[in-house]
Amino acid sequence: MLTYILKRLLVAIPTLLAVLTVVFFFVRIAPGDPAFIILGDQASQEALAAVRHDLGLDRPLPVQYVDFMWQEVRNVLPYTIELTVTALIIGVALGLPLGVAAAKHRNRALDYAARIFSLIGLSFPAFVSAIMLLLAFAIQLHWFPVISEAREGDPLSRVSALVLPAVNLGLIMVAYVMRVARSSMLGVLGEDYIRTARAKGVPARVVVWRHALGNALIPVVTVVGLYLGVLIGNSVLTEIVFNRPGLGKLIVNSLNQRDYTMLQGLMVVYAFIIVIVNLLTDLTYGVVDPRVRQT
Amino acid sequence: MRSFASLAATLAAALLITGPLPAHAQKVLNVGMAAADLGSLDPHRTANTPDKAIIGWMFNGLVRFKPGTMNPDQIEPDLAERWDTSADQLTWTFHLRKGVQCNNGYGELTADDVVFSLKRAADPKISSFSSDYADMTSVEAVDPSTVRLTFKNRPASVLGILTNYQGGNIVCRKAVEKLGDDFRTKAVGTGPFAIEQYTPNQSVTLVANKSYFRGAPKIDRIVYRYIPSDATRDLAYTSGEIDLIYGRQDQVWAERMKSLPHTIVDVFGPGELSDLSLNVTKKPLDDLRVRQAIAYAVNRAELVKFKGPLTAREAVSVVPHDYLGTDENAPLYPYDPAKAKQLLADAGYANGLKISIIQTALPTMLNTMQIVQAELKKVGIDMELNVVDHPTFHAQIRKDLSPMVMYSAARLPVADVYLTQFFHSRSTVGTPTAVTNFSHCSVADKDIDAARQTTDVAKQKALWKDAQDKLVKDVCAVPLYEQLQVWAHRDKLNFGYKLDASLTLGPIINEQTTLQ
Fold first, then answer.
1. Which terminus of chain A is more exposed, N or C, with fewer CB under 10 A?
2. B130 interaction partners in chain A (CB closer than 8 Å)
3. What residues 235-274 of chain B have any CB closer than 8 A to a CB of chain A?
């Protein structure tokens, strides 16, 4: 297992380096000056230089980089992680049982309902479903405020600020997980050893949840890993619509301010998250399926 | 499983507890702004629209525009109670109001703070607006409540640059010195509201200055929320979470907001004037007939129709509406495509001509130019737009790389400022004293300079009128349209004055403002 982990880690390093290099060069092609955006068109060169100094844009790039990671990302990253992880939990907690149930009751009402739901979930862009959730739960029902704001020292406000955005992201994940769990389960349920287990008189619950699901999980883990990338992409849109602090809002602001150093850093953070997620996915294979460890 | 159950219980509790916000005993004004975060609260630094409005609630000048107006004729005392001027109007003495307190416990405001603040505003290393104070030779404290300013040349409006606008905002010295870089987010003035808290990427909270010299504000707090998504901002307004909302400058938004119950849409000045400057030194624009043809080909009424008559209006001169000295009846060329064609033929371009210009990708400016492009096409002028991003546009037009430049701007509402920056030969781009004269025009230099020398207001206005007439006739620029400021608020919010204009580009919230 240790060599397996080390191998995966070694592959992750060149991937990260490649991303870093590409982003670095692309960012340099685009012109931009945050000082100009702040000071406007009447500012003198001296004032522009002073603001660049204030913003730390005249410092060496590596220093800016470290500072950026430390100051900005540290403040907002927890919000983004909190959002995506909650969405992931919602996605797996609802998607997996739904998918299994749909496979068990193939071509019956439950199956059709689940498939229609997942089709809707997959078709809706996150920003549209976000606004629909706001219309329903904030404007019509008044259960949540539109501007979800987590106040310091008030954990309840943090939870309530998380509910709608996490549900919005989670529903998309539910749709993905459900589809894959269903088709994977259908495949496994048709296998010989399942028939054998049934023939031996093993209770249906045990057949489905232990014998079948264990083997059906691999594609599900792949999908969760793959779509975590999609989830993070959608989290940008979700954060903007729900006005949550987080990496997404930071991206929009740095785009508006033409702050390309910041943007570059954010791209690297995202790339890093994706690489780590892929790594975790690979490692999870090892846990779920002993065959992977041995090869 | 138990932890899952407790999480579910927490969620359920959150659902139950979070309902509509409870009614506060305190009067809190919630404002929604179209930005992701604060730029700076330092009034001498920022020229960012989202920052300007909030700065307007925190600071005072020596004098101020009457709330809701931007008429320099109606400037009234603010931190200064009264002032005297020397006969040549080069020396101005201001007598300060006594007992004015700096916010956040920084003590009484004295002449020392005013001197510090004006010197800071004039320092090009700190201030974005230092050029406004280029003629100021000294500023000194005569005694703790008297400040004397001397000028080498009389600025067009001495009071104008001392108002509660940009560099004229007075900051408290001790706060600037103590806070250092933190002044950006904790700025201290003497205004009706003071900074309480800044939450990055979320909001700025201001608290009423109970010892405000004009009386305690009737609103206890202002929460200025950064909501970059237009849809979310609108929804937050609909749900009642914000009472005052920064609007999109477009007709559809204004119309939709107007249809909401208990909502008042505020459309006010200053209008940002879009002028299309023509470089009179470059072929083929050096031929007056070609410039006239362009002026005749542009249909201002059509542009306003496109922009939306609720939020835009036709330009009246090369200087915006309602400035001190604007010629409201400047001899603009009427829309006459036949005449434009004729003039082009006379100039030897019967088969049309091609001009290649640089244009910003900023959508509001780009779509205007696309209409102008179509209008010019009708008379045989093929205007090619090289679209670049906004900062590049600003850099390239200042290098004199575009023969035609569309520029949108609002300035201190005195004709001199616009005329000097955009049409005095001293301001020509590519020269050491460059500002934003893209046309290379100098026909109005004498009038602009003479207007500065005279102290007779009527004579000054006549000279400015002459300057504008010359610039229009010579087609140094084709005035297009003016874009107005658009906000909306719930009718329970009463500004306490009539909002016709606000140089901070947002409504002034002060001690007169009430919230029911």
1. C
2. 44, 46-47
3. 235-236, 238-239, 241-242
Query: pTM of the full predicted structure?
Result: 0.82
Q: Say how far apart CA B463 and CA B480 lie, in whole Å.
A: 23
Question: What is the C-alpha to C-alpha distance for residues A105 and A100, in angstroms, rounded to an integer?
Answer: 9
Question: Per DSSP, which regions of B135-232 are E strands?
Answer: 136-143, 146-151, 193-199, 203-208, 221-226
Q: Per residue in A33-45, pLDDT tens?
A: 667 766 766 666 7
Strand partners, B357: B385
**pLDDT tens-digit readout, B73-129:** 889 999 999 999 998 889 999 999 999 999 999 999 999 999 999 999 999 888 888
Q: Which position has the higher pLDDT, A53 or B399?
A: B399
What was the pLDDT predicted at B8?
46
Instruction: Report residue B394 as tokens.
Output: 């600003």
Q: How far apart are CA B368 and CA A213, in angstroms?
A: 61
Contact B406, B436 (CB under 8 A): no
User: Is residue A153 scored above 80 in pLDDT?
Assistant: no
Query: What is the value of ipTM here, to two decimals?
Result: 0.74
Q: What local confidence, expressed as pLDDT, does residue B380 receive? A: 94
Q: Specify whether the CB–CB gap between B129 and B135 falls below 8 A.
A: no
Q: CA–CA separation, A28 vs A36, rounded Å?
A: 17
Distances (CA, A) of B86 to B149, B154, B287, B300: 11, 11, 47, 45
Give the separation between CA B240 and CA B359, rounded to whole angstroms: 40
Mean pLDDT, residues B233-260 taken together: 91
Measure A38 CA to nearest chain B CA, in Å.
Answer: 5
CA distance to B287, B374, B473, per residue, from B346 (Å): 11, 22, 18
User: Tell me, what's the pLDDT at B452?
Assistant: 87
Q: How far apart are CA B503 and CA B272, in angstroms?
A: 11
Q: Which of B277, B312, B298 is nearest to B372 (CA)?
A: B298
Question: For B229, which DSSP code?
Answer: -
| Whole-number Å distance between alpha carbons of B238 and B229 | 14
Would the CB atoms of B202 and A149 count as touching at under 8 Å? Answer: yes
